[in-house]
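User: Study the shape:
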Amino acid sequence: MALPRHDWYLKEWLRSLGKTQQWVADQLELQKSKISRKASGTTPYDRDDINAISALLHLQPYELLMHPEDAMEIRSLRKSITLAAERRAAYRTQPDDWAEKLVERKKV
């Protein structure tokens, strides 16, 4: 994957989500040229841009600063870790007599 000339991945996210710069401009009530300049790095973005566009695209703000593939891998890892933690917590909340049952099975 080639690195962009700028340090955010708006164009890649739009492509990944099937959205256009015109759609973003319409939703945010901005000129398309303003979105285009920010996407290409001609005009710098700011925190407000990141927050507004990430909310519009249903992303975390930091995800706009990484390639969509990388962000999706991190999301997948977080989901797996959360699931594993939930399973571990459920296992720990089982009654303490599980150890006794295990010992009884070994006797038989």
In short: The chain has six helices and no strands. The radius of gyration is 23 Å. The helical segments are 10-17, 21-28, 32-40, 47-56, 68-92, 98-107.
